[in-house]
Structure formats: C-alpha cells, structure tokens
Structure to design on (166 residues):
C-alpha cells in the first residue's frame, strides 16, 4: 500500500510540475501583420538634436511603403525610402532601405509584445542578440512611440515619434 501511495504521489508531483513548466513556456502568438499597422500614417520625430524628421508609412499588401526625410532650416538633408514585407516562414518583416546617395540596406523587424519591436540588419537574423546595430521601439500610446538605436549595445540615438494629425 505504501508503495502504491508513494508511486502515485511521485507521478502526481511530476504531472503538476510538467504542467507548470508547460504553462510558463507557452506564449501567446503575436499577430505581426496587425501589430505593424500601428506604424501606418504620418509621424514627426524629435531626437532632441534639432534635426526633425518626417516619417510616412502607407499600407502595401501585408507590408508597408515608407518615406522618411530629415530637415535642417527648411532644407531637406536626407531622403530615405523603405519597403517592408511580411515573411510568413519567419513570422517577421523584411525591409529594404535606400536613401539618396546611400547604398541598399536590408533589415528584419518583429514585435516582441503588443507595444515593443526590434530591428536588426538582415545579416544578423540568425543571431539577433549578437548584432552590432540594433533598434528597439516601444509604443507609449497609439500616437507616440520611442525608438532607440544602439551600436555595440550602447545607445547612440533615441527618437520620439508623434503621430501627425491630418
């Protein structure tokens, strides 16, 4: 009788522990396509360095078509176009970026929560934590998000994006 009780107790213990472990590791699937829609619209960015930028994002299939400009004293100093497309296999967005007078840059972006996202160069997709260049963003509200750019895990720039009401 003691042996049956002991065996039952051990079995129940492992069952309870394994359910607890499973519950801790199960994550809710994030809908990357829906979350990316938060970026649609016109945004003004303030980096606190007196160089404002305007970011325009339009829907293009399951992706985004973006246009960015930086302005100093009413003169455009930089223009950048981006095209972001959703990759179902990786459950991430792949982006191509090209600016006037600049080469092509490829990035990968994904949301890690309903309000936070990460961006790394495409070449670092297999090991994003080791990427030298990283961008992390967080929506503070539907009309404000903050994006931080890091190089070798040191913050080099932080921009606050505010939705421009049309």
């Amino acid at each position: 009788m003691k042996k049956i009780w002991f065996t039952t107790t051990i079995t129940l213990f492992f069952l309870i522990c394994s359910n607890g472990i499973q519950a801790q590791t199960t994550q809710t699937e994030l809908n990357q396509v829906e979350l990316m829609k938060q970026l649609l619209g016109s945004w003004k960015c303030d980096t606190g360095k007196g160089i404002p930028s305007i970011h325009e994002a339009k829907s293009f299939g399951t992706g985004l078509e973006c246009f960015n400009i930086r302005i100093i004293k009413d003169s455009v100093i930089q223009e950048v176009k981006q095209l972001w497309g959703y990759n179902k296999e990786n459950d991430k967005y792949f982006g191509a970026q090209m600016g006037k007078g600049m080469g092509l840059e490829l990035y990968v972006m994904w949301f890690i929560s309903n309000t936070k996202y990460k961006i790394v160069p495409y070449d670092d997709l297999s090991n994003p934590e080791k990427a030298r260049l990283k961008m992390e963003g967080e929506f503070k509200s539907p009309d404000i998000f903050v994006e931080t750019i890091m190089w070798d895990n040191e913050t080099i720039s932080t921009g606050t994006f505010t939705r421009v009401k049309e």
User: Anything to note?
Assistant: The longest helix spans residues 2-25. Helices lie at 2-25, 32-36.
